[in-house]
Amino acid sequence: MKDFIEIKNLSYAFDSYLAIDDLSFDIAKGEVVAIIGPNGSGKTTLLKNIIGIYSPTKGEIIIDGQKPQQVRKRIGYVPQKFEFERSTPITVKEFMSLEKCNQKAHGAKNINQALNQVGLEGVEHKRLSSLSGGQFQRVMIARALLHEKEILIFDEPSTGIDIAGEQTIYDLIVKINQTKGTTCLIVSHELNIVNKYAQRVLCLNKKMICYGIPEQVINPENLKKLYGIGAGLYHSH
Amino acid sequence: MPEIFQYPFMIRAIIAGTFVSVLLAWLGVFVVSRRMSLIGDGIAHASLAGIALALLAGWAPMPTAIVLAIIIAIVIFWLEKKTNISNDMAIAIILTTGMAIGVVLLHFYQGYQPELISYLFGNILTINMPDLWTIIISTVIILAIVALKYRQLLFTTFDPTGAYLAGINPGRYDLMLYIVTAIAIILSIKIVGIVLVSALLVTPSAFSRLFAKSFKNFLTITISSSTLIVLIGLIASFYLDLPSGATIILTSTTVFIFGYLLKNILKIRNENKI
User: Fold this and answer.
1) Residue A105: what pLDDT?
2) What is the 8-class DSSP label of residue A40?
3) DSSP H helical ranges for chain B
4) How far is A237 from A192, CA to CA, in rounded Å?
5) How many CB atoms lie within 10 A of CB A150?
6) d(Cα A122, Cα A139) in Å, to the nearest integer?
7) What backbone phi and psi angles, to 5 degrees, belong to A86?
8) How far is the C-alpha of A94 from the C-alpha of A200, rounded, in Å?
9) Could you tell me the pLDDT band of residue A191, with boundaries at 50, 70 and 90?
């Protein structure tokens, strides 16, 4: 399959601190790829390079033959933390109406439809700050669905969500991937989730530790390299 | 005709007050939502340098202060985006530097400085026709820009990353908000004064947030309450013979306290019903 996202010799440094060191891998169109690694391993930095907010210190990122900044309208991003002034009143509908494009199908009239697709009904007039973590993640996904984003990037989508909510979010991601062919990148800490939902996994600790099919590359040896601990974390079933 | 309308200076003050109250309210909702309430104080205090320079050189204070305020806004933006200096640190540095330059410049100004007191605490008697026209024209231009770019400003306020991914340049809108807020603050100085102006930028939004159910609602209540506060403050200052700026700010604080108490009473009543 033709490479859709190509990461070539990517390095990124914050002043003198090297966050990502010579990373190369590629993602095919329509794949679900998980990124795992310990805290401070460069996962969020990698995502921010892919969406083009950060520019590589060395190397390059090519998405469908173009630089990330040129294709950014085709990317949806669900951050780990969404910080805003919670006492400011903004409704779900107002929030989802912020993005505008010329396509009629992406207009405000279709907001309810997008919310229904992610299992949220009757929330459009609720204040954004009144939503639970899981509901908020689904609003972000609904916004990406509304604008038919080709690439969806999730930075630890299950943070602050209970187990049932987490299952719903991942099931939703897989459903979107299968029905719309959306390429999905997911940062996750949970190996069982990676095994269950991802077609490929990138093990990152500043450098690439492994990349491939989860069943093949998530093994005690790689986990030890990644986390400094071994088989205790690993369950093959 | 009521006595208040028999004085041309009061008519000028009421017109100017109405325009700046709408302007500050509209910008205030963005300023408060971005947690940058301190910027009003910073720009207002730093503009003392511009006013002192204008008084010393014999230039028109308001246009001079507007130019300087725009420069200050650009410097704060640059410090915040291009260095490791945080927003509140950048504002604190600029605020104190501007004031210090102002004080040094005024040291060389000979004689009594009544106009300076007017700029510090506001004095509606000093609003002349050129000031009024400057306020009206600038307000109309800024409101037109803000209305035209309302969605982009709101998007970059709540979700800068989402805005970027939607093809918007968030930095451009941040800078735009800084500059128009700086101009709005200078336009309001003769009414409420350097020391008090930031309250008019923040308090109506703080009041409105207590009751608003949506952002549209938030904007509408903020503009209405801001206009009402300024008009009540001006009328009260006229009939009670009190300084206009301080009376407007005390009116806004009273309105906020009233709103806060009302909100809590309504909350307790609703809880008792359940």
Assistant:
1) 67
2) T
3) 8-33, 38-46, 48-57, 61-82, 87-107, 114-121, 129-148, 150-158, 160-165, 170-192, 197-209, 215-240, 244-273
4) 9
5) 20
6) 12
7) -65, -20
8) 36
9) confident
Name the minimum distance, in Å, from the CA of B202 to any CA of chain A.
Answer: 13
Structure tokens at A176: 């979107």
Shortest Cα–Cα distance, B273 to chain A (Å): 22
Distance CA B250, CA B229 (A): 9
Beta bridge partners, A207, equal A205
Which of A204, A156, A140, A149 has the alpha carbon at shortest distance from A177? A149
Strands A75-78, A183-187: pairing is: unpaired
Instruction: Return the minimum-mean-pLDDT range out of A163-177, B109-123, B127-141.
Output: B109-123
C-beta of residue B23 within 8 angstroms of C-beta of residue B143: yes
Segments of chain A assigned E as strands: 3-14, 17-28, 32-36, 58-63, 75-78, 151-155, 183-187, 200-205, 207-212
pLDDT (tens digit, 9 = 90+) per residue, A122-161? 899 999 999 988 888 889 989 888 888 999 999 988 776 7
A92 beta partners: none
Radius of gyration in angstroms for the set of CA atoms belonging to chain B, rounded to a whole number = 19
Which tokens is A126 given? 């609720």
Using pLDDT thresholds of 50, 70 and 90, give the confidence band for residue B271.
confident
What global pTM score does this model have?
Answer: 0.90
Which DSSP state fits B109? -
d(CA B186, CA B67) in angstroms, rounded, equals 10
Taking CB atoms and an 8 Å cut-off, how many pairs form between chains A and B? 75
Least confident of A91-95, A222-226, B131-135: A222-226
- How far apart (Å, rounded) are the C-alpha atoms in residues A104 and A28? 29
**B244-270 pLDDT tens trace:** 999 999 999 999 999 999 999 999 998
Report how far residue B123's alpha carbon sits from residue B230's, in angstroms, rounded to the nearest whole number: 13
Nearest to B197 by CA among B75, B11, B20: B20
Helix H or strand E segment including A224: helix A220-227
Nearest CA in chain B to A93: B214
Judging contacts by C-beta atoms under 8 Å, the chain A residues touching residue B158 are: 84, 90, 95, 98
How does DSSP classify residue A127? B
B210 touching chain A per CB within 8 A: no
8 A C-beta contact, residue A87 and residue B209: yes
**Which residue of A87, A90, A152 to mutate against B (max B Cβ within 10 Å)?**
A90
Please indicate whether, in this complex, the C-beta atoms of B33 and A100 are within 8 angstroms of each other. no
